[in-house]
Amino acid sequence: MSGLNLTVGVGAAAALYMIRLRRAAYTTLAQRVRPPMLEKRPKMVPFGAVNGQNRGPNPMKPILYLEDPYSYVRDDSRKNEEVLEHLRKENAYTDLKTKHLANVRANIYDELLSHVQETDEDYPYPHGPYLYYNRTVKGSSYTYHCRKAKSANASEELLLDENEIAKGKNHCDVSSVSPSPDHRYLAYMVDFNGYETYTGFVKDLKTGEMLPDRIENISSLRWGKDASVLYYATQDEAHRQNKLWRHTMGSKDTDELLYTEDNDIYSAYFQKSRSGKYMFLMSSSSETSEVSFIDLDNPSQPPQMIAKREKGLIYGVDHYDDCFYIVTNKDKATNFKLMKTPVASPSPEHWEDVFPYDESIKVDDIDCFKNFMVMEGRQGGYSQLWIIRTEGGNKHSRHQIAFRESSYTVSGSINRDFDTDKFRFVYSSMTTPWTTFDYDINTRESTLLKEKPCPNYDRSLYKSERLEVKASDGTMVPISLVYRADLRSQDRQPLHLYGYGSYEIPIDPSFVSSILPLLDRGVIYAIAHIRGGGEMGRTCKMTCEGRSAGGLLMGAVLNMRPDLFTAAIAGVPFVDVMNTMSDASIPLTTGEWEEWGNPNEKAYFEYMLSYSPYENVKQQAYPNMLITSGLYDPRVAYWEPTKWVAKLRDEKSDQNEVLLKMDLSSGHFSASDRYHYLKEKAFDLAYLLDHLDAIKNDDKKKPEAAAKL
Questions:
Q1: Catalytic residue among 171, 496, 668, 691
Q2: Which of 189, 311, 522, 599 is the most core-located residue (most Cβ within 10 A)?
Q3: Catalytic residue among 633, 663, 673, 690
Q4: Where is the Peptidase S9A N-terminal domain positioned along the sequence (predicted)?
Q5: Which of 548, 612, 629, 670 is catalytic?
Q6: So what's the pLDDT on residue 673?
Q7: Do 548 and 444 have their domain in common?
Q8: Does 702 reside within a domain?
Q9: What DSSP string describes 449-474?
Q10: What dihedral do alpha carbons 639, 262, 197, 553 form, nearest 10°?
Q11: Are strands 256-260 and 267-272 parallel, antiparallel or unpaired?
Q12: pLDDT at position 425
């Protein structure tokens, strides 16, 4: 027996030695491989009044220049083989540098999937004689759109199978799925590459056949008063939604152009009143809006203006009875207020307050039903809902829907019926999964309809907090935290900080199952509810993350205080601010001048140059960084993160790694396939856990799912 034990011991030792040898060889190889390098081809980029180019209303003279060594990486066609080959090399390098995390990724993927109810069904919403809902099926990547008649024991009708549409496609985004007012037809749009340019389709739900009314290159789609008309929008070459159209079903004639927005700063939109009586034609910039309307009972009449654009005046409209109700910042109402005006005389001189302006309430939207209205807004930093009733004459009453938790987010859900006494909303907190309620406006009671299932989740293990920290300029910045209570330590814990802080878009404290692998390994997850820069303090191991405009935040923070973080993830980061915002041919640029500034104008040039992440990369140590992007992203073009990575590698003075992960078949919003999306999340989480030293021993074991990744 002793000899047998000796043999097993020697064999185990030999196997262990070989494993260590292979690991050492791999580590040496990974360390030896150099990252892909972009050749520098300096170009002097002009800022100011360039002949023949749209540089904004007040471009500066003389022209100023900035040198960009990687300007040539931009290729609007996405077909330049030199650039594509470089991106493939970047992906190969990232794969090599993260190969040691393969088992961790596979385990995290399994863990993420364990929190997903793969076969699930939304709570049906009433719409006319039907109950509509979406469902998913285990193993199917996309959604099934269904309905049932309201009658007892009605059978399901499958309206649209996104899985069939997505067959053979790398990307498939189905949007604006909407039954016609008579419920005979289904309109929807599809984008097959992530560039957010769609094709509109109409399906006959009675015969199952596709109608010939196929509309190419659109960005929105809505039914008119009935099933005879569709309204849609198209974009210009810079991806700005600028034209509004009307299509008569079955007509081969040219569609009718209703409105063209010629001002590059503005974008045009449709919105149909819940009453179904009016179609609003809206044009807006970041600071100004203008709305006209079409009476859908007399659609041939020209649109009627509500209030012409006036610099700084923002307003939105819905219809109730014989009035338009208006959310606006008129009369210096910084946080907006609710006003109304007769439909017969909608101009601003007839607008009157519904309630006195209250600076403590930020009014976001008004939703008008037949017998009541719902005002959505914010108070005390949290989203809120108010029910409004008319009391005769000009009198109105309102009450607020109350919630038990102190920190939460709430918003309206799908409410298709106009004549109803119930309002459907969704609710969540950092520890409560998204939950659907019906609120009875007469009894003032909320009925829980469905909580989105999250298998293998015990909410009693988790705790959320809200605190405030003082930024360097003295501003108090709210921070939302969530963590595993049983893993909370008085000592410093690893922390992952998320931030966005742009476009007045809040990152509310809601439930996100994809952060559970962090929490279950002792990582604290924090959201900084910022309005500007500032330091968030220190911890022993801290990572940070931001996407899109939040990626700009990451770039600026890492230039200022790279020492605070062990690692950072910047997703589709808007980092090449100066070059992008100077060029009106780049999608969305002109509409963003009021948000970020126009570097072609002297008043903004120096200020924007002071914070643009790309221009402010310098010779200093940076933390480990993972930067993700999509080749077909129209919002933050692939060349921005690609150039940023090259400049970081060229300037930084440390041995930390800067990795670029480029999805060559998607756009701004990542994978459309829900399983592929989870794999991407597993990649990010494994990267973070590695740099937070929070990987458990079991995470390194090879699971059955390893081959899937």
A1: 668
A2: 599
A3: 633
A4: 66-451
A5: 548
A6: 87
A7: no
A8: yes
A9: EEEPP-TT--GGGEEEEEEEEE-TTS
A10: 40
A11: unpaired
A12: 98
Record the tokens describing residue 547, joined without a space.
Answer: 């996407």
How far is the C-alpha of 265 from the C-alpha of 311, rounded, in Å? 12
- Lookup: tokens for 150: 């309201």
**Catalytic residue check, 407:** no
Tokens found for residue 326: 């208006």
Closest residue by Cα to residue 293 from 312, 275, 313, 271: 271
Q: Do the beta carbons of residue 672 and residue 142 sit within 8 Å?
A: yes
For residue 160, being part of any structural domain is answered with no
| Whether residue 477 sits in one domain with residue 331 | no
HSE toward the beta carbon, residue 444, CA cutoff 13 A: 11
Q: What's the total number of domains in the chain?
A: 2
CB 218 within 8 A of CB 234: yes
Q: Is 350 a catalytic residue?
A: no
The reported pLDDT for the residue numbered 10 is: 45
How high is the pLDDT of residue 531?
A: 57
Buried b (16+ CB within 10 A) or exposed e, 175-198: ebbbbbbebebbbbbbbbbbbbbb
Q: What pLDDT is recorded for position 460?
A: 97
* Residue 256 CB contacts under 8 Å (≥ 6 apart), including other chains: 245, 246, 247, 248
- Asked if residue 476 and residue 513 are part of one domain, the reply reads yes
Q: Are residues 412 and 509 in the same domain?
A: no
Mean pLDDT (10-residue bins), the chain, 709 residues: 37 47 49 88 97 94 97 96 98 97 96 97 97 98 97 94 96 96 98 93 98 96 97 95 96 90 95 97 96 96 96 97 97 96 98 96 97 95 95 90 91 97 97 98 97 98 93 85 92 89 82 97 91 31 90 93 94 95 92 93 96 96 96 93 97 95 86 90 96 89 62
Same domain, 472 and 443: no
- Catalytic residue check, 654: no
| 499 within domain boundaries | yes
Beta strand segments in 98-143, E: 120-121, 125-127, 130-136
Rounded to whole angstroms, how far apart are CA atoms 459 and 693?
25
Cα angle: 488, vertex 490, 495; to 5 degrees? 60
| Same-domain check for residues 348 and 379 | yes
Asked whether 674 and 478 are in contact (CB, 8 A), the reply is no
> What is the domain extent for residue 344?
318-453
> Do residues 425 and 518 both lie within one domain?
no
Instruction: Quote the tokens at residue 125.
Output: 């919403």
Q: Which helix (H) or strand (E) element contains residue 176?
A: strand 173-179
Give me the DSSP letters along 495-524. Answer: EEEEE---TT--------GGGHHHHTTT-E
The full DSSP string for 523-590 is: -EEEEE--SS-------SSEEEEEETHHHHHHHHHHHH-GGG-SEEEEES----HHHHHH-TTSTTTG
